[in-house]
């Protein structure tokens, strides 16, 4: 299958394309979730795309995966009966979460994470741009106050605001090895960008975007 060519920082980059077994359309690999079979013939999500064996691909959408299960699309893709776990939808959601939080842990180890309300405010004021994390279960007042400050600073510096509000206080705290982390700011490094992409991927799956509203390249004939 031909890969799309794009320019990134003056370098020609090949973006792999794959076909979704539900829509039968071709997408960028980053828009899909890969699945492989375990030795026990069970369907397993391969979020990092590193597991061995032949993979099949489903659009990164709760709805698309639900259709794949209902239509027995995995059986058709592998041309045999396979075992689909009853909690596959939940497993994928949790796996996408863990994948993103792993990048947050790496960002913390690289020293680019600042925690605490006052410290985050200072970081926002001192740097041209940071990625802002706010706990999904933080108080509405606290989140609004932080967002107001962040958006104002981004407007002044003419930078695009980037906010991640997908994870709970407990999840963020565990990823950072700290207690009761409600707000955090990340300097922009490669690992920060990976965390942002993985978080968006998890959020996109949860948003239940319809499979008809996608960036498919072209339909494939069955």
Helix/strand layout:
Elements: E1 4-8, E2 11-15, E3 17-19, E4 26-28, E5 32-37, E6 43-46, E7 56-59, H1 62-70, H2 73-78, H3 88-109, E8 113-115, H4 117-126, E9 131-134, H5 140-157, E10 163-164, H6 169-176, E11 183-186, H7 190-206
Parallel strand pairs: 9-10
Antiparallel strand pairs: 1-2, 3-4, 5-6, 5-7, 8-11, 9-11
Number of strands: 11
Q: Rounded to an integer, what's the Rg over CA atoms?
A: 20 Å
What structural class should be given to the helix and strand makeup? alpha+beta
Share of helical residues:
40-55%
Gross morphology: elongated
User: What is the name of the CATH class of the largest domain?
Assistant: Alpha Beta
Describe the strand arrangement of the main beta sheet, using strand numbers: 8-11-9-10
- Which stretches are low in confidence, meaning pLDDT under 50 for 5 or more residues running? 4-10, 213-222
């Amino acid at each position: 299958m031909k890969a799309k060519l794009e320019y990134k920082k003056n370098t020609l980059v090949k973006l792999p394309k794959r076909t979704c077994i539900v829509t039968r359309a071709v997408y960028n690999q980053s828009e899909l979730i890969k699945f492989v079979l375990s030795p026990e013939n069970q369907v397993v999500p391969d979020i990092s795309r590193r597991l061995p064996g032949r993979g099949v691909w489903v659009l990164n959408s709760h709805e698309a995966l639900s259709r794949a299960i209902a239509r027995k699309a995995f059986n058709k893709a592998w041309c045999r009966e396979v075992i689909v776990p009853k909690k596959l939808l939940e497993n994928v959601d949790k796996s996408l979460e863990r994948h993103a939080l792993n990048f947050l842990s790496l960002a913390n180890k690289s020293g680019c994470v600042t925690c605490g309300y006052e410290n985050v405010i200072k970081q926002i004021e001192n740097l041209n741009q940071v990625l802002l994390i706010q706990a999904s279960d933080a108080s509405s007042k606290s989140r609004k106050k932080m967002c107001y400050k962040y958006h104002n600073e981004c407007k002044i510096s003419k930078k695009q605001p980037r906010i991640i509000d997908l994870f709970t206080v407990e999840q963020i705290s565990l990823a950072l090895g700290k207690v009761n982390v409600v707000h955090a700011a990340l300097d922009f490094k490669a690992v920060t960008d990976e965390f942002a992409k993985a978080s968006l991927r998890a959020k996109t799956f949860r948003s239940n975007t319809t499979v008809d509203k996608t960036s498919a390249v072209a339909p494939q004939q069955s």
